[in-house]
Amino acid sequence: MSKAEKTKAFIIEKTAPVFNRKGFAGTSLTDLTDATGLTKGSIYGNFANKDEVALAVFEHNRQKVEQIVKAEMSKYTTVREQLLVYVDVYKNFLKYPFPDGGCPILNTAIEADDTHPELKEKAAAAMLAWKNRIAVLIKKGIDQGEFTTQDDPEQTALTLIALLEGAVMITKLTGKINFRNAIMQSVENMINAL
Description:
- With 194 residues, the chain is mainly alpha-helical.
- It has a domain at 59-192: Tetracycline Repressor, domain 2 (Orthogonal Bundle), CATH 1.10.357.
- Helices cover 79% and strands 0% of the residues.
- Helix 1 (3-26) packs across helix 4 (50-73), helix 4 packs across helix 5 and helix 8 (153-174) packs antiparallel against helix 9 (177-192).
- The protein is elongated.
- The termini are far apart.
- The relative contact order is 0.11.
- It comes from Chitinophaga agrisoli.
- Residues 5-65 form the HTH tetR-type domain.
- This is TetR/AcrR family transcriptional regulator.
- Keywords: DNA-binding, Transcription, Transcription regulation.
């Protein structure tokens, strides 16, 4: 890795929690310089603008969550166990190196919906890729006879994502862990009923 690549990676790593907690609009250049200890010139010497930093940070945070889920799924052999990893990770995210501020897809989707088309596009692509990964797993479970469901894998995948992200949003909004636990129990029941 060149010095420039290392500096870019450093900026992304240090500003990732700031963007994920404060959002694009709420993150200032001062926040970026405070988080990195670098000057404005150093940041903009590596990135064209704040948009470019935000897009790289979103990808960094998204990959972090994806890596956690993949690592946990690799511990299991059945599709059901692999799907239940989502319940464990989203219910107990503090035990994992989850991005500070919560789910980057949810955070970015909510903020970027009306304010930042490029971030919205990235969040939408990430959500659709997530949906596709879950649908493929469900189809695999059906094909292997592990699941008896006749439900559409894509519809089931979207429902699972909506429940997971809804649980995060409701818990962040209300501060009620028991709400998250109740929704996660519904997700677990849904997976076990497949």
